[in-house]
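Ticket #4471: structure export looks truncated?
Reporter: QA, pipeline team
Priority: medium

Steps to reproduce: submit the single chain below to the structure queue and open the exported record.
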Amino acid sequence: MARFPYRRRKDVTVASLLLLILALLLGPVPSSAAGTDWWQPSARPAPDSQINVTGEPFTGTNAQGEVRGFADLHNHLFSNEAFGGRLICGKVFSEAGIADALKDCPEHYPDGSLAIFDFITNGGDGKHDPVGYPTFKDWPAHDSLTHQQNYYAWVERAWRGGQRVMVNDLVTNGVICSVYFFKDRSCDEMTSIRLQAKLSYDLQAYVDKMYGGTGKGWFRIVTDSAQARQVIEQGKLAVILGVETSEPFGCKMILDIAQCSKADIDKGLDELYDLGVRSMFLCHKFDNALCGVRFDSGALGTAINVGQFLSTGTFWKTEECTGPQHDNPIGNATAAEAEAELPAGVDVPSYASGAQCNVRGLTDLGEYAVRGMMKRKMMLEIDHMSVKATGRVLDIFEAESYPGVLSSHSWMDMDWTERVYGLGGFIGQYMHGSEGFIAEADRTEALRDRYGVGYGYGTDMNGVGGWPGPRGADAPNKVTYPFKSVDGGSVIDKQTTGQRTWDLNTDGAAHYGLVPDWIEDIRRVGGQEVVDDLFRGAESYLDTWGASEAHQSAVNLASNAPAAASSAEWNPFTSYAAGRAVDGDRGTRWASDWSDDQWLRIDLGATHRVGRVTLDWERAHAKAYRIELSADGTSWRTAWSTTSGDGGLDTARFTGTPARYVRVLGLERGTDWGYSLHEVSVHSN
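Actual output as written to the record:
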């Protein structure tokens, strides 16, 4: 009896071999059954969008151990849930299927007559065919700002085409929500941010389900750079959560009075971090309690300025710029429909053409938020910040050698580029048409080469911005379908969803699935070099993120050290003694008498290597001054000097030198007052 089981196992083995041979002779087994095509889901919904990409996504790293792939630094997957929920129509995904996901807002039926935001942003009367799936006659389109562009399968196509990083900025705007005619939920910004974060994780689970379980899908939300590297090495898409909103933590401003506190900022940052957010903007479109914004121009700028007034009780205020950087000119264009929302007797002010800078920079609360982000190793988006605010942020980061700075979609003054790269930050350009994108990329190519960094892009889809239009069926160097992916491992054909097939040449960048086509257009028009820089985008982004996580604040040798000064301004209510400049409190300061030749001396208590000194000036700053070092407090040598000080936060770097004493020697005042320093910090390097 012991032989029968053995014979049965042998018979089964023989039968299995015969079946395998037959399968090989008759044709391949289905890929999902074979389990080899890991990038193909085993349970995609039906019906659904086509992907129209064949070939295995690249995995692993290059010969230098670097990840490869494109990086989109600025996308808005779930902005259909923002602004009251009815500004952007359609969903990223739906358990009920594509027909439920890709349908128009109810008020757009039957002909778009009530698509008010559509004709405000796109001109004309806003009329359009509201039917999405399956016909898609009029949307999505490169110039329609009110319809879903981020259907999950379109994002999948971008991933299959070589993208490996996507920053999903959770976005909303309470003022736009409050004034828009249609809404189905609260306008509270943080409520919307929480919902969009939840839906991001829901989308991850939705994709995982197609691939057989948790962690198996291509859409992976990551919360640290090591996790992101692992995901990209597996050939999947690393998704990072960001935030772009006008009133983070409730930090709006009413009549120049902040509506939040430091406790609100700490609580808000902790909550966002727990949600998985790792990068964010501190202000967007409207001045708030944290920072002033970089203006919008033309009629749109006027309309947003109206929103600024409705939100804060004040219009933008401008001044002449003090450096080469400037904010966008507001101009004096009219925006009649927006201006009609103003109270009777209130008019948008006119602005001098020579005054292009926002008077509002980084507030004390804003600086507290910046330093709070640094403590949490988060990355700060400087796009949308006024140049005054951006300058202060870069000063702070340079003083701390903190690399976590991003410019994701061409809202930074280009003159900041080298400072961002010098810190170790990363830059992406808005998704312009290929000619414009190449021209802007060429302007900064030498800097990328110097700092050895790749390049990114910010699609800003679902972000009410407008996208590259068609270059035409007869345009020179047009995209020819099918084409190979940049790595050469996949073939990409025209994208089809339902009854509609899109061609970048004649449709433009209508939705996210056409990102690979747009990159091919850049290659055809501008050559391989720009695309090669883009293909290094994922690695450079992760370099910035990883360096931010690894950053350690340097020891401040001057903290609470004994200090002396040539003089201290007398005040019956507070002290301006020398020790106030090293007490770690930016709310106190040393202030000298009102004459040029003044000094502040710090005793480090023992000899240390000194290679960096940071000075946080009050308005009463030095135009000309020196940093001097001494071993004994008697013999001094100059380590660093300037004759063009402009106040703010100065960081003096020089060759490390052994010293016990550090002296700031004021030579010429920058104001009629004396010299005044909130804090002086001294570091070895």
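Status: closed, not a bug. The export was complete when the record was re-opened. Leaving a note from the reviewer for reference: Residues 70-88+136-282+361-550 form a domain with the TIM Barrel fold (CATH 3.20.20.140).
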